[in-house]
Every structure is written in structure tokens, then in C-alpha cells.
Specification:
Length: about 260
Amino acid sequence: MFDAIVWGLVQGLTEFLPISSSGHLVLVPAMLGEAGVDIGEPSLAVSAVLHLGTLLAVLIFYRSDLARLANARRDPDARRTLRILFIGTLPAVIGLPLRSGLESIEQNPPLVAGALLVTGLILVVAERLPRRMAKLEGATPADAVLVGVAQAFALIPGISRSGATIAMATARGFDRAEAARFSFLLAVPTIAGAGLLSLLELDGGDGSASTIFVGFAVAAVSGYGAIAVLLRLITTRGFLPFALYCFVVGAFALVVL
């Protein structure tokens, strides 16, 4: 049960905060192990419901946007947004075959820590970009491709998906709240796909019902809170607090692991 709570918090908080969920899934157990606290890797069932928990968080938070997209037949802006999100998803789908080649990085915590430092640099660059006011409804296919490529780049463990996509959207002229909105709506098919892949690999006896429920609930609640915190902080404090966190954790991991 303790493991499920830990993994739920890690998944829920780091999926949406620009600090790399894949990196924390490697570094957290490694650093806890160095401290003498061993937690098992999440089973496929737990991994699947953790993704579904964070999916529920983003579905609830952006429910009005998603309801509008569901009415795309009658709403031209919604149709354009759906096309943009579809185009933005393609680079990650095309890059999925590379995922198996990147799995070796997950077995090397120092490499993951180095990638987390790269995430910090990405956020520092994003902080220095000029602020403009483009809206998602006005996004172009070029915007979608570039943000999608940033999402595919985040297949590397330690590179934050939300950090890379928000930074790229900011570079393309979207204000920070719109960049986050772009990132999180683009995350819906990505997170759903990750959860589905885990579900398809289940063997039927992978985790107890109570553990699965706890992991799901913790991931959903913490994920919803993470979205709210991120939107508040990037509009009031910018990206630097998250960049500093990535630098500190990445450097500490390089020293102790």
C-alpha cells in the first residue's frame, strides 16, 4: 500500500509539473534505495491505473475544453483545434518504435539525472523567451509539428514532457497559460495510450484491488493539484522555480548514485 501511495504521488505530481515523470520513476527508487528504503517497481496493473488516474485529472480540469471539442461538428474553432492536436500527436506516435532503444537509459540513473539537468536548461530558456499572446485556436500546423516533436523528445527518460512542450509552445508565441493548455490537451491521447499499452500487457493477476484503487486515487488527486499549481506558478513566478528544482535534484542524483 505504501508503494502505491508513493507511485501515485510521483506519477500525479511529475506527469504535469515540468520536472519529468519518467526521470522521477527512475531516480526516486534509486535514491530511496541509497537511503535504505526499498520500494518495488509498480506492477503493470498499477502502472496502467496510475496513467488512468492522471488522465482523469486532466479530463476533469479541462472538461469545458473537451466538451467543446466533442462538439466539433458544429464549432469551426473546435475542428481546427482537433486538427492541431491530431498533428501534434503524430511525432510521438512515429517515435514510439524508438522507445525500446531508450529503455537502457532507465537502467542508468546518472544518465537520467543528466537528462533532468537538460530539462532545467530548457526551462531557463523558456523563461527568457519574449511573452506573446497567441491562443491555441489560432495555432498553425507548424506549431503543432514543433510542439509534437518536443513531446517526442520527451520519450528520453529525464526530459519533461510538459516542460518540453510548454517551452516549445512558448517559443511559438503562446502565452504561458495557453502553452500549458496546449500541452495538457495534447497529453490526453498520450496518457491514454500509455495506460492502454500497460493494460494490454496485463496477465490478469497483476496487483491487488486495494493497491490499484489507492494508486489511482492518489494519482488523480495529486495530478489535478499539480495542474492547478503549475498554472498558478508559471503565470506568477515563471519557469525558474521548476528549473531550480531540476538542477538541484539532477545534481544531487549525480553525486549520490
